[in-house]
Specification:
Blueprint: H1 3-19, H2 22-34, E1 36-38, H3 39-46, H4 50-60, E2 65-70, E3 73-78, H5 82-92
Antiparallel strand pairs: 1-3, 2-3
Length: 95
């Protein structure tokens, strides 16, 4: 197997690991609906502690999310087009 395929498999596996937590899936769904959100908005929407939200966002940054600082706030948005597609497939199978 060539190195490109191995790298692609590893990247896809890492993406699935990140999405394997329910809170991280909810973060992706929230961003699918609202495009860009800050930590406070995630805390209010998801009803989970700020520390937990920050840890999840940190884990997701670089693989699924990008961030942008605007004044004192950091805003997050989806940077990986595969993540929403995976979520859509999973949610469509629950109907």
């Amino acid at each position: 197997m060539n190195n490109i395929k191995i790298t692609s498999y590893k990247n896809n596996i890492e993406l699935l690991k990140i999405l394997s937590h329910p809170d991280r899936m909810q973060i992706v769904v929230a961003l699918m609906q609202h495009t860009i959100l800050n930590v406070t908005e995630f805390v209010n929407m998801l009803q989970i502690p700020q520390a937990a939200v920050s840890q999840h966002l940190s884990r997701m940054r670089g693989n699924i999310l990008c961030s942008e600082k605007k004044g004192p706030e950091v805003y997050y948005y989806l940077s990986n087009s595969k993540a929403p597609k995976i979520i859509e497939v999973l949610l469509s199978n629950n109907k």
